[in-house]
Design brief:
Elements: H1 9-18, H2 37-70, E1 85-88, E2 107-115, E3 121-125, E4 133-139, E5 144-149, H3 150-153, E6 158-164, E7 177-180, E8 184-192, H4 199-208, E9 210-213, H5 240-253, H6 260-263, H7 281-303, E10 307-309, E11 312-314, H8 325-334, E12 344-345, E13 348-349, E14 363-368, E15 382-388, E16 403-405, E17 419-424, H9 431-435, E18 437-439, E19 445-452, H10 456-459, E20 469-471
Parallel strand pairs: 6-7, 17-18
Antiparallel strand pairs: 1-2, 2-8, 3-6, 3-9, 4-5, 4-8, 10-11, 12-19, 13-19, 14-17, 14-20, 15-16, 15-19
Length: 473
């Protein structure tokens, strides 16, 4: 296990290259003879390529999602919608949905993408009583612009304005205004599901959300009925040289002045210069290798990111990464656009109490305390969801249960109010275990807990989930 937050990205690269212990030790050179520049150029392009990958993983993921989600002519029931429109996802997502990693099975999404380059946008959100909701707004680097929710703006709804940083035009009086660093923003809205019977109510709420350019405020943005479609689109993620070309594109569209000094050296590998097309063979070969090894670094960081406790990994910096680019990449590889800790915490695990990788051929149990430290009065709740360990998507199972949560019906609690969850691929024969069963694949898997609207004890690290133990079947 490697604790990446203790060293910087540049220290990591420098030490690994200096000592010849990079992820796959791609070059393993002796000092090249004077005049033999090929190896030197390869090594430098490789080092910059890994740096680019770790810096740029999150914005490339966001750009892939933007293009995929907006590539339609009208709103769809799978969340797709044209730019500056909302796309309501009209059912809870499950194993069929592979648009982005670790989607939840707890809320109905109401999401969209907006362009605030020419003018701000206005959002209208209806009053939402006695129910969890959030409109999480992120820039293209997954920094939080604002989280609109019960805890921040109350349950009365209303209008809110998002402008690009530096906008100097007139704005309506008495309307809250928030500023994005980038022209494109992701509006990742969610409305909590309290039972299997509230789908119609939530779908009606989704149609009341509106988004409009400021020039059409306050009467624009009427949402049409979405076109019905069953499945979400599958992600087509760029690899190798295509990934570096995609990074060049997204950085050009969403430049950050404060990162100019960091990005300037990347011109050596085509970033900021139109991509890799004009590079010659040595640099291209180095970037292909850099993509693979940089990807491996991010995967490992994603498995062991941030703060581990009892086998769970806690991420307390989501939405506020500053210069911790590896943490930003790791968190977004697990869950693109993770909420800030005050709105939700997402501890996850890949191993049991003995450090062995979780696999459905085994059986496990975890006993959750009666007090899961969430603010139920703000609509908060908790859940633990099953995902495969490779792609981090939900897993098909015979009882259509993808999570165990505070709203799950039919659970059998212990006398002290605690809850013991049983996890395995094989269906339990014991009736209590069956009632509290979270089905696993017959393969490696990961678990992600969600603590929506957590209490301060969660945010400041005092509350910790218990460990998970392998048991006899």
């Amino acid at each position: 296990m490697i604790y990446y937050r203790r060293i910087s990205l540049f220290s990591l690269l420098y030490v690994s290259l200096l000592l010849g212990c990079g992820p796959s030790n791609p070059a393993q050179p002796t000092t090249p003879a004077l005049g033999e520049r090929g190896q030197v150029e390869y090594d430098y392009a490789y080092a910059l390529g890994v740096q680019a990958l770790i810096y740029g993983w999150a914005p490339v993921m966001m750009d892939v999602a933007l293009v995929q989600q907006t590539s339609v002519d009208a709103p769809m029931t799978n969340g797709q919608a044209p730019m500056n429109m909302f796309g309501p996802i009209t059912r809870l997502w499950d194993y069929r949905d592979r648009s982005y990693t670790t989607p939840n099975n707890d809320t109905y999404y109401i999401q969209g993408w907006a362009d605030v380059e020419e003018q701000p946008i206005a959002i209208f959100i209806p009053a939402i009583k006695n129910r969890y909701w959030i409109e999480q707004i992120l820039d293209m680097y997954t920094e939080s612009v604002v989280d609109l929710c019960n805890a921040t703006v109350g349950d009365q709804g209303g209008y809110f304005i998002i402008a690009k940083r530096g906008y100097g035009g007139e704005l309506p009086e008495d309307i809250p205004v928030f500023y994005s660093r980038t022209r494109y923003i992701w509006l990742a809205g969610r409305i909590g599901s309290q039972s299997a019977s509230d789908k119609e109510l939530v779908n009606d709420l989704q149609l009341q959300w509106r988004i409009m350019p400021l020039s059409e405020f306050p009467d624009g943005g009427e949402q049409p009925l979405p076109t019905d479609t069953e499945e979400a689109p599958t992600v087509q993620f760029p690899q190798g040289l295509d990934w570096f070309d995609r990074l060049d594109k997204v950085l050009a569209a969403n430049p950050l002045a404060e990162d100019a000094n960091i990005l300037q050296p990347l011109a050596y590998i085509g970033i900021g210069e139109g991509g890799t097309t004009q590079l010659y063979g040595t640099k291209k070969e180095a970037l292909v290798k850099a993509f693979k090894d940089g990807f491996d670094i991010i995967v490992d960081a994603a498995k062991y990111s941030a703060t581990p406790y009892n086998g769970w990994n806690y991420e307390y910096t989501a939405g506020r990464y500053e210069a911790d680019y590896l943490q930003r990449s790791a968190i977004n590889m697990n869950s693109i656009g993770l909420n800030s800790p005050e709105r939700a915490m997402y501890p996850k695990r890949y191993v049991d109490a003995d450090g062995a990788v979780l696999h459905g051929a085994n059986a496990y149990e975890i006993t959750l305390p009666a007090d899961m430290s969430v603010n139920y009065d703000l609509g908060g709740f908790w859940s633990i969801t099953m995902y495969d360990a490779v792609d981090r998507f939900m897993v098909e199972n015979e009882i259509d249960r993808y999570k165990v949560a505070s709203m799950t019906e039919g659970l059998v609690y212990n006398e002290d109010g605690s809850l013991t969850i049983y996890i395995s691929y094989a269906k339990p024969t014991d009736q209590k275990q069956l009632a509290n069963w979270l089905p696993a694949p017959n393969d490696d898997f990961m678990l992600q807990c969600r603590l929506y609207e957590p209490k301060q004890a969660v945010v400041n690290g005092e509350f910790k989930l218990p460990d998970l133990f392998k048991i006899d079947q």
